[in-house]
Amino acid sequence: MNTPPATLTLLISGSGSNLAAIINAIAHKRLNARIERVIADRDCAGKQHAFSADIPFTLIDRHLPPNEFAEALNHAISEQTNLIVLAGFLSIIPKRLIARFPKKIINLHPSLLPKYGGMGMYGKKVHQAVIKAKEQESGCTIHYVDQGIDTGEIIAQARVPVYLQDTPETLQQRIQKQEHELLIHTLITLLHPKAF
Ligand code: GRF
């Protein structure tokens, strides 16, 4: 690969399994990219992946006054970043950041949007709602971030079956496996379109 690596900024709040999937894809040269910074809005297990891979890490407390939170986030993301990945980031992205990086912020959501998205629909709550509604399939979505919650243009989706005996946990695990693969594939497509 002679082209310079694309630069990514990752925003996380949780276990960071998607961050780990990206680190792994870069290490195995599936993805020609460099993570220039991982930003978390709370103390979370995911930071360990950044530490182990020597990636600069910034904690920006979600309890900061909104203006200070927005300012700190804005400051932490460099102009050169090619793509900002919200990998389980639970805070609302400040409007000024969306305006600064049009079509450069993507989000992962563990349902087939537009179903089961919006305010309060995150983590296990999504899977509980899917099971309660007796859906026969669910999945995950990668979309651009716009001013709404889970409303931006859809880039890619992957589907999984929902089984009668599923619990939110088993469904979440099945979806996460697909999500990691979908994320890497989407990043390759967005960052290196000539590879296709
Ligand atoms: C993912 O399931 C994603 O869909 C949602 O948050 C979860 C993050 O998981 N937005 P992880 O922290 O990457 O393990």
Q: Which architecture would the CATH scheme give at its second level?
A: 3-Layer(aba) Sandwich
What class would the helix/strand composition place it in? alpha/beta
Distance between the termini: 15 Å
Number of strands: 7
The number of distinct structural domains comes to 1
Instruction: Estimate the helix proportion, in percent.
Output: 25-40%
N-to-C SSE string, H for helix and E for strand: EHEHEHEHEHEEH
CATH class category label: Alpha Beta
Bound chemical compounds: 5-O-phosphono-beta-D-ribofuranosylamine
Q: How is the main sheet built?
A: 7 strands, mixed
Spatial shape = globular
Can you count the helices? 6
Gyration radius over CA = 16 Å
Strand content: 15-25%
The strand line-up of the biggest sheet is 3-2-1-4-5-6-7
Q: Which regions contain 5 or more consecutive residues with pLDDT less than 50?
A: none
Overall mean pLDDT score? 96
What is CATH's topology name? Rossmann fold
> Looking at this structure, what is the CATH superfamily?
Formyl transferase, N-terminal domain
Structure in words:
- Strand 1, helix 1 (17-27) and strand 2 (33-40) form a beta-alpha-beta unit.
- The model has no long low-confidence stretch (mean pLDDT 96).
- The protein is built from six helices and seven strands; from the N terminus they run E-H-E-H-E-H-E-H-E-H-E-E-H.
- The protein is globular.
- Helix 1 packs across helix 6 (168-191) and helix 5 (124-132) crosses helix 6.
- Strands 3-2-1-4-5-6-7 form a seven-stranded mixed sheet.
- With 196 residues, it is α/β, with parallel strands linked by helices.
- Helix content is 34%, strand content 22%.
- The protein has a single domain (6-195), classed as Formyl transferase, N-terminal domain (Rossmann fold, 3-Layer(aba) Sandwich), CATH 3.40.50.
- The two termini are 15 Å apart.
- The longest helix has 24 residues, at 168-191.
- 5-O-phosphono-beta-D-ribofuranosylamine (GRF) is lined by residues 12, 14-18, 46, 87-88, 108-110, 140, 176, 179.
